[in-house]
Amino acid sequence: MRSLLDAGAGPVPPLLDPDRWTPRHRVALLAGASVAAAAGLVEALRHTPQTSAVDGLSAFLAAGFAMALVGFALTLRGLTVSGFLVGALFTTAGILSWAYTDTPVVVWVLLLAEGLLFLVWTFPWLRNLAGLPRLGAAWLGLAYWLLGTLGAALVWHPAVAVQRLIYAGLFTLAAMAIVVATRRSGADLSIGITAAFLCALGLLFLVGSGNALSAVHVVPHNKWGEHMEYRFWGGPGLLYHPNSIALLTVLVAVRIGADDTFARWQRYAALAVPAVILPLANSRTGVGYLGAAALIHAVLVWRRRPPRWLATALVPIGLVVVVTLASGGWAFLTSKRYGEQADVTSGRTATWAQVWREFRADDVVQKALGDAKYARGYVIRTDTAVDPKDRPKLTTDNAFVGALRRGGILGVLAFLVGLVLMCWHAIRGTGPGRRRAGPGRRGPPAWFTIAALGSVVTVPTADWLLGNTGGTMWVYLLAGEAFLLFGTASAASGPAERTLATAQA
To answer: Which has the closest alpha carbon to 118: 169, 183, 186?
Structure first.
């Protein structure tokens, strides 16, 4: 309980030593094998004698992979309880949002607990607000909530204004909690956040072990799951959008793979995570983000030219090629997921067009401060279903369009300010420290440079940079930027010349 309520608690030793084999490893291996065997047995008993062996083996392999992901998280050095809790809360909120779309009270209970915890961490609240404007990620994830709240109040949509104010308060507390925990502990919360991502992926594969390696997967029973049975979502009662699953895998690969304070086997294992999961999630946005990360990594390696730099630069690029081919190659890149009428963007262009039409029809206040019809700024298109009850609440799937929808013209300007500021920190670094990229500056770690600059390619097809209930990319980048500005210099991750894979062969 003390660790839970103390945002400033420092890193805890890994439960599993990454450098040597111990009795704990034997216990963990036995426990993981037992859980995987139980999952395989349960799945085998659900099928006929003709198919039970194959289905049981598939479930055993998927559950074994799930337990390996959790075990991998337990080997990470630098993990903080506060970082793990932040990552776990945001990931769980995202999963529950997809698994319980028709019962939002489930998500709100978690958000209430999250808000109470962050209230404890961030007291005194006004004093701890001071650091947020210096963070580009804070501008990206908070400005549109505040602008949208003001806009809804001015056009007298009180219910929307109150809901947005609650969201704004919750996410502001989350951002403050990350800054406070970073300042007090001097530690990098992104390691704990990454460990939480690994555990979330492990949980999804464990619950979904019965269908993870099947041709047909469990999907939500709504428009979101229609025709999406070929993509992995998780299992019954625990579903997460495949694009969000793909995002977690890339964030894990970049955070661990680009930091040479981790053991070499850990960096290679981090690259194996997207290699296995991305073809199952079948996410073009995820593969695009991984490709951007690989190219930025190659540029960093080329600038420094360490020994065997060419092989080091090509390993992640080769991984992207392999994942693309395993996902379906050209057919994967050009598929029309929701039929011919949806085009290659999976209906995104139609959603953007409707946002633009509604923007043009809005009054001056809503043009400036955001559309005030719905608290979360979602879009409802009449062409998605005949019955209005069946029409999904669509996200904009474009961070720039999302900023316009939620925060109006001022929201777009705030988004651009945040993006430029975050990218500036990712390139130039900031703050005094032992490693200097210029007078009075500390150079950014390679993983943050790769993750932040690579995130720009996700702007046209995802709302990831805007944060929200399951804003995993947002809290991940916010934690990295907060550590760069407010963390202990001596605890910083490896410099940018260190590589994503550190391949030496």
So the answer is: 169
